[in-house]
Amino acid sequence: MRDAVICAAVRTPVGKRGGGLSGVHAADLSATVLRVLVERTGLDPAVVDDVFWGCVSQVGEQTSNIGRVAALAAGWPETVPGTTIDRQCGSSQQAVAFAAATVISGQADVVVAGGVESMSRVPMGSSAGDGSAGRPLGPQYLARYGGVAPNQGVGAEMIAARWGLSRAELDEFALGSHERAAKAQADGAFDTQLVPVHTPEGAVVTADEGIRTGGTLEALGALKTPFQADGVISAGNASQISDGSAALLVTTSERARELGLTPVVRVHTTVVAGDDPVIMLTAPISATRKVLDRSGLALADIGVFEVNEAFAPVPLAWRREIGAAAEAVNPLGGAIALGHPLGASGARIMTTLVHHMQATGTRYGLQTMCEGGGMANATILELLDR
């Protein structure tokens, strides 16, 4: 029976808005990880059957099927096709799920999955045109939801209210994300997954730029709450606007042996779930339940969880509903500290998860992330014996 395994996973550092990666075209960011992926594995890119690439704002520099453009920019043979996927923030996690399904079904043997987003160069929301409220949604959608055009920040406020999460709880979680990420960075936990990026200006970006130390509850508590006048969501307890790219090599165990590759993890189970698109960010809860049920595993079997920190209420509400131990969730920090380059985040998180599982000998890891439209992907990975 065919399976799907990940043999390598790499990512760029996550750059802050206007930071070290802001001068790099998204196709070139993508090409950087694609080139290093084959360098580290010794894989001949000519054997890659397809490139599945996540990208959310597919406009301007990120249009024209950036998955295909990235492969060509990397110098890969013209025979290697590519396609671009938009499942909002989960686009590149979905790319891995599609890659796994494709190799298991026998439609391909080797697929590279990943994604990119340069939010400095292609601002979030650019693809919505002139930004008129509800314009991408259409009148029938808006009629169904009472004329409400969903907003993620408002959704985060709704989650905080529904689960009774205070501003202090959210800010404490945010500080913890930075503390965990800073420790991971200092300990070299990210070193094996990172790919240095050479910029057109001649600089080399080697480390994640969003991690901050020395924050206090008082400082975070003074920040404005832009989505609600008396709200709890601020820039301090929300994910950062970022630039970055990540890529994973997906194949079967049999093909990996033939190519001399060493599988690291097996893609055990993948699902996607939908929920209320107005509150928008709650689907990781149902997706987690769905993936556990489909996998046949229990919560206690999972050694580490990655729950995207789009806003602090998302993982906090998820933890309350699912019951996972706090120390097992985002142990190396999350998007509040590391950043959230939309189309790359699923692959960035999975790259971090794969390397963490390998470093700690964790048998099962679970990843989930909320997505625009009230959806969420969930994936369980299984560490393989080396």
Automatic annotation (TrEMBL):
<dbReference type="InterPro" id="IPR020617">
    <property type="entry name" value="Thiolase_C"/>
</dbReference>
<comment type="similarity">
    <text>Belongs to the thiolase-like superfamily. Thiolase family.</text>
</comment>
<feature type="domain" description="Thiolase C-terminal">
    <location>
        <begin position="262"/>
        <end position="382"/>
    </location>
</feature>
<keyword id="KW-0012">Acyltransferase</keyword>
<feature type="active site" description="Acyl-thioester intermediate">
    <location>
        <position position="89"/>
    </location>
</feature>
<dbReference type="InterPro" id="IPR020616">
    <property type="entry name" value="Thiolase_N"/>
</dbReference>
<dbReference type="InterPro" id="IPR002155">
    <property type="entry name" value="Thiolase"/>
</dbReference>
<keyword id="KW-0808">Transferase</keyword>
<protein>
    <submittedName>
        <fullName>Acetyl-CoA acetyltransferase</fullName>
        <ecNumber>2.3.1.9</ecNumber>
    </submittedName>
</protein>
<dbReference type="Pfam" id="PF02803">
    <property type="entry name" value="Thiolase_C"/>
</dbReference>
<dbReference type="GO" id="GO:0003985">
    <property type="term" value="F:acetyl-CoA C-acetyltransferase activity"/>
</dbReference>
<dbReference type="InterPro" id="IPR016039">
    <property type="entry name" value="Thiolase-like"/>
</dbReference>
<feature type="active site" description="Proton acceptor">
    <location>
        <position position="340"/>
    </location>
</feature>
<feature type="domain" description="Thiolase N-terminal">
    <location>
        <begin position="5"/>
        <end position="253"/>
    </location>
</feature>
<dbReference type="InterPro" id="IPR020613">
    <property type="entry name" value="Thiolase_CS"/>
</dbReference>
<dbReference type="Pfam" id="PF00108">
    <property type="entry name" value="Thiolase_N"/>
</dbReference>
<feature type="active site" description="Proton acceptor">
    <location>
        <position position="370"/>
    </location>
</feature>
